[in-house]
Design goal:
115 residues; 73% helix
């Protein structure tokens, strides 16, 4: 038994058409998804590339300004901070979600107790 007919009917029932669009064929959204995928991929690459480029510029300046011993101490501090960020266990993201939901609902008074 093929699931395609059932899948098509499910997609059609969940696809919202604006008034007057019912005569048009069902929009698959492939072009818009491909465009969004390319745009999101570009933003992701920039989000990874910009900090790397900044580090390539900043680290030699830091080593020159601080000296190798002090830069070593700074590097150890960065490692410790990175190590303890493992114990976050998603709490930062969960708190961001809860705060965003509270702000969207207009319940600002309850935020200090949650934070």
């Amino acid at each position: 038994m093929s699931l395609m007919p059932q899948l098509r009917s499910t997609i059609r029932s969940h696809t919202s058409f604006e008034k007057g669009d019912r005569d048009l064929p069902m929009r698959t959204g492939v072009a818009t998804h491909e465009g969004r995928l390319a745009q999101s991929s570009l933003w992701n690459l920039l989000g990874q590339g910009v900090p790397i480029a900044a580090a390539l510029v900043a680290i030699p300046l830091l080593v020159k300004g601080l000296g190798t011993e002090r830069f070593g101490i700074l590097t150890l501090a960065w490692v410790v901070i990175g190590y303890f960020s493992l114990f976050d266990l998603g709490m930062g993201r969960a708190l961001t979600k809860v705060v965003a939901e509270e702000l969207a609902a207009g319940r600002v008074a309850g935020l200090p107790g949650r934070i």
